[in-house]
Amino acid sequence: MATQRTQKQQQQQERIDKQLQQIQHVIVVISGKGGVGKSTVAVNLAVTLSRKNYKVGLMDADIHGPNIPKMLGIERSQLMNTGNGAKPVMYYPNLKVVSIALMLQSTDDAVIWRGPLKHRLIEQFVGDIRWGDLDYLVIDLPPGTGDEPLSVAHVLKRIDGAIIVTTPQDVALLDSRKTVTFAEKLGIPVGGIVENMSGFVCPHCGKRTDIFKTGGGEKAAQELDVPFLGRIPLDPNMVTVCDSGDPYVEKYPTSEMAQAFLRIVEQCEQW
Ligand SMILES: Nc1ncnc2c1ncn2[C@@H]1O[C@H](COP(=O)(O)OP(=O)(O)OP(=O)(O)O)[C@@H](O)[C@H]1O
Ligand SMILES: [Mg+2]
């Protein structure tokens, strides 16, 4: 029995290793706390990369709150089992998406799993998915420093950069510091900090208001001695497109936000 399990584990490891050889770069999107815009950043980063003609995979590693399929309007799609691994959902011909939400019967189903099961799922998300050749695999993580980031670090082994998403308040420093320490402990290089929800330009009068202050992310990057990747403004259109399943950078390709994502991608290209 034990030998059988070891053999199965070995085969799984071989599948994972084979898959990893086909993935050039891995980027994880992470934050100390919830609701700061990780999934938004992961989706728009993946779409910006694919608009630059890279072959991109987007892995939703948020097992309890998988939002990526809804944000891309593909929540009714399903991963297809082929007998030789599952086929990811194709958003574009060069953007493949995997999420537990694409495996559940209903969008209302809740997953109640402990660490070991989540770890096995992350292993399957790498080894049992037919990702094919990828230039970039972007991984969206749940908030904090729990099971999923640990499993992702363990299974992926080589991560090129973590993008830490934060909001502009002073407390951003506290959350970012924790996340930087966590990444360092796991041996994940910190790609840099993105300050999301940074300033709001009124669509009626054009006046800029810094609703959550400004500069917290940049200050955190300076104090923690990690790169600052840029600011993403608050934009009410973001909420609308997120809910309707259109990626913002595709719908508003000339916007300030789309430009910010292009600059983030330029920095990712250096990792
Ligand atoms: N720059 C922005 N402007 C306006 N709304 C935004 C912006 N960034 C994110 N949002 C909105 O904030 C909400 C939370 O964003 P998102 O789901 O990306 O955060 P998260 O960090 O992934 O959350 P969780 O920790 O729950 O996974 C969403 O409704 C999203 O549309
Ligand atoms: Mg999220």
UniProtKB/TrEMBL annotation:
<protein>
    <recommendedName>
        <fullName>Iron-sulfur cluster carrier protein</fullName>
    </recommendedName>
</protein>
<dbReference type="InterPro" id="IPR033756">
    <property type="entry name" value="YlxH/NBP35"/>
</dbReference>
<feature type="binding site">
    <location>
        <begin position="32"/>
        <end position="39"/>
    </location>
    <ligand>
        <name>ATP</name>
    </ligand>
</feature>
<keyword id="KW-0547">Nucleotide-binding</keyword>
<dbReference type="GO" id="GO:0005829">
    <property type="term" value="C:cytosol"/>
</dbReference>
<comment type="similarity">
    <text>Belongs to the Mrp/NBP35 ATP-binding proteins family.</text>
</comment>
<keyword id="KW-0378">Hydrolase</keyword>
<keyword id="KW-0408">Iron</keyword>
<dbReference type="InterPro" id="IPR027417">
    <property type="entry name" value="P-loop_NTPase"/>
</dbReference>
<dbReference type="GO" id="GO:0140663">
    <property type="term" value="F:ATP-dependent FeS chaperone activity"/>
</dbReference>
<dbReference type="InterPro" id="IPR019591">
    <property type="entry name" value="Mrp/NBP35_ATP-bd"/>
</dbReference>
<dbReference type="GO" id="GO:0005524">
    <property type="term" value="F:ATP binding"/>
</dbReference>
<comment type="subunit">
    <text>Homodimer.</text>
</comment>
<dbReference type="Pfam" id="PF10609">
    <property type="entry name" value="ParA"/>
</dbReference>
<keyword id="KW-0411">Iron-sulfur</keyword>
<dbReference type="GO" id="GO:0046872">
    <property type="term" value="F:metal ion binding"/>
</dbReference>
<dbReference type="InterPro" id="IPR000808">
    <property type="entry name" value="Mrp-like_CS"/>
</dbReference>
<dbReference type="GO" id="GO:0016887">
    <property type="term" value="F:ATP hydrolysis activity"/>
</dbReference>
<keyword id="KW-0067">ATP-binding</keyword>
<comment type="function">
    <text>Binds and transfers iron-sulfur (Fe-S) clusters to target apoproteins. Can hydrolyze ATP.</text>
</comment>
<dbReference type="GO" id="GO:0051536">
    <property type="term" value="F:iron-sulfur cluster binding"/>
</dbReference>
<dbReference type="GO" id="GO:0016226">
    <property type="term" value="P:iron-sulfur cluster assembly"/>
</dbReference>
<keyword id="KW-0479">Metal-binding</keyword>
